[in-house]
Amino acid sequence: MFNYEYYNDFIDNQYEDICGGKFLFREHVEARYIVQEQATYRGNLLIEALPPIKNAEKAFNFIKKFPMYSEEERCSSNECRIHAIFRLLDYLLPTASNLLTDEYLSIVIRNGYVNKKIGTPQYLKILRNASGNIFNSNNENNELITQCSVASNPSNGFLVMGSSGSGKTTGVNNALTQYPQVIRHIINYNGNKSLFTQIPWLRVDCSYDGKISGVCDNFFQEIDLLLGTNYSYQYGKTGTKVDKMIASMSFLALRYAIGVLIVDEIQHIRHTNNGESLLNFFVTLTNTIRIPIVYIGTYKTVKTILGEQYRQGRKAEGIGTVEYFRLKKTDSEWDLFIEFLWEYQWVKFKTPLTNEIKELMYKKTIGIIDRVNKLFMAVQLEAILSGQEKITLDLINKVADEKFKLTDAIIKAFESNDPEQISKYDDIKAPDMEIEEYLSRNKAAEKISEIYKSKMFKDNLNKQMIIDSIVITLYNTMQYDENLIKKVAVEVVNKIGFDKDISILVREVAKKILLEEVESKEQKNNQSNKKSNSKRARKKNNELLENFQEENKKDILEDISEGSSFYDL
Hints:
Strand order of the largest sheet: 7-8-9-4-10
Radius of gyration: 28 Å
Number of strands: 10
CATH class of the largest domain: Alpha Beta
Distance between the termini: 66 Å
Number of domains: 3
Shape: globular
CATH architecture of the largest domain: 3-Layer(aba) Sandwich
Structural class: alpha/beta
Largest sheet: 5 strands, parallel
């Protein structure tokens, strides 16, 4: 009969041993199934193979991206510090919008799978008796397709909107990293094994010219890149009619159980005469392929395009809308964002964050996250290259005025609050859309505030900074792999605590790495000398350990034990 095993031995998710549970783009994994709390999800392999549903705190910790940092790095060379500054490109302090994106994706992917099945005994029996499906010579790879209820309603997606640089695409991409893009199921039924390939999410860009054929071809190309197929040629050849393309997309959506389709850059619709046709196409697509669609675009697109047609607007909004706001000066999220960001200074003389600096940074960026990050980076680069080595109000003004001229017009338009000026830019949210902007995220914002104030968050942050310091110190002294040092550092800190003196922690991590290296050498030696006397082998390995530590690491360990940093070595 049909059976499979559940995974139980994990902390956060069943794939955590693969890249820490954060999947790379186009990564393939073998399915691992977990028990579901929701009754409607139980027994559905497409859902049971997904990582567990996260609460707000786990989602926050998964999404956040704090770059590696150590205070000692401010004493390193100009070249090293300049490279370190670019770590800030990955800095992400989750906002309420990030948590909503994560929650909505979790809902729409699973809800889209509720009425789709693979692997049930009834399903396999139907396929076994159907000509040309599985368990016959015509199907060389024994590949399955998805069973979908014809009575099921089309799944709702949602809309993500915001200004350029507000983090909407980044927010969606970060939430998607918790889902492997390809999951391979091996279905064993009465001794017959079959393969099913699941694609939990697929992302395409809206074609720049707004043509329907361009979107369809992007769809086929993405699957080709994922699976090494040739659907772009097979189904997307020049001259192929749109209705045939939609039928092909519907077939592929079922064959690979696509969980959600992400359509980015929908603002391209505005620059073409095909806008209404393309929107009608998306509605037809949702009804036909029966998967949720997530739209990503700018405010003006939403208001002038999606808002014009009730049908398109309703389909786009689906379960709701996630807005990526520019940070407001009076909002606690701005204070938290700039305060955390300000700690990452690589100039020699660290400047405390004053109210004057916060005011100026906001004035020069109007709270657009991407602009805040890049201005902070540019100011530090200028401070290092000029030899000033300190962030000042004058330096912030100078860099903003000289290096960020391209977006000055946007800032001035916003400051004017003139609808006519603002309407020139897709990236500015019009005043009449400000009224209820916080209503949909109040709950998430309150939860984030609780997370920031919790002892667990503060402890985890301190722990991460301690581990970063250990990694940076030992990487520069021992030249071991960064991932190896981090792995051992986490083990040591978890075992003896992060409240110990940093020199003690560094020494313990260094000793553990050395011992593990010698043990590895010992195992290799034992394998090649199985007939050697065990007493002589132990003596030889003990001598190897002593010689290795003496010859290779003596000076480093002595200096570390005395509390010296690697800059003194």
